[in-house]
Amino acid sequence: MNWTTILTDEARENCILRTDDLARKRNLPVPIVRNALRRYELKGLVERVSTKIYVNHVNQQFSPRDLVNILRPESYISLESALVEKGVITQSPSALTCVTSGYPQTFRTKSVNIVYRKISPELFWGAELKATRFNKYRIAEPEKALLDWIYLSRQEGLPTPLDEFQLQLLHTAKLLEYAERFPRTVREIVKELVVIRSVSHSL
């Protein structure tokens, strides 16, 4: 079989390869597919991300966002990555930061660095559906991304400095409404933040 042709054909449909899907589509045993992809990984044409998932670099439009809901269906981009997209913070994180109601994990390869942090299933909401050219992914609204960040920072005993955040880009009413669904410690931080903002605006 000409695997260069196969990878080129697959690249027209997606930038992500799944060994089981590819085996079924080409009527091949999974071990054959896996061994072929390993060979082509050495040539730099594909990149293994997890046991069954590869990036097809024949398709040059790959973005880590293509993988977010493939690696973790119950997840969405949040925290620093969602906040920087909306301009609430300016410094981009080194990883694509996500939250999941499932198992937390980091996926790091040459072209992928995705961090999934675990959040309570009760707090798994507040995300919008968006799309790359080939795949869909979810990303938190900025108010929810900030609340997720405060919540997880408090859970891990980390400080929550908010002085470098462009909080004027957030909707105060929505932030307060969403905060009501979080634990008391998060609500207190948000209410203090809103008071500080209102005072600064009145000066």
Global Rg: 20 Å
Number of β-strand runs: 9
- Measured by DSSP, the beta-strand proportion falls in 15-25%
Number of domains: 2
Distance between the termini: 72 Å
Low-confidence stretches: none
Question: Can you give the helix content as a percent range?
Answer: 40-55%
The biggest beta sheet reads:
4 strands, mixed
The helix-strand sequence is HEHHEEHEHEEEEEHHH
Q: Order of strands across the biggest sheet?
A: 4-5-7-6
Secondary structural class: alpha+beta
Number of helices: 8
Q: What oligomeric arrangement do these chains adopt? A: single chain
Mean pLDDT: 94
- What is the 3D form? elongated
Written description of the protein model:
- This protein is α+β, with helices and mostly antiparallel strands.
- It folds into 2 domains: 3-62, Orthogonal Bundle (Arc Repressor Mutant, subunit A), CATH 1.10.10; 65-202, no CATH class.
- The protein has helices spanning 3-11, 19-26, 30-42, 68-71, 79-85, 142-155, 172-179, 184-202, and strands at residues 16-18, 46-48, 53-56, 75-77, 96-100, 105-108, 113-118, 127-131, 136-140.
- It has a 4-stranded mixed β-sheet. A 3-stranded antiparallel β-sheet has the order 1-3-2.
- The radius of gyration is 20 Å and the shape is elongated.
- The model has no long low-confidence stretch (mean pLDDT 94).
How would you briefly describe this protein structure?
The protein has 203 residues and is an alpha+beta fold. Helix content is 40%, strand content 19%. The strands form 3 sheets. Strands 4-5-7-6 form a 4-stranded mixed β-sheet. A 3-stranded antiparallel β-sheet has the order 1-3-2.
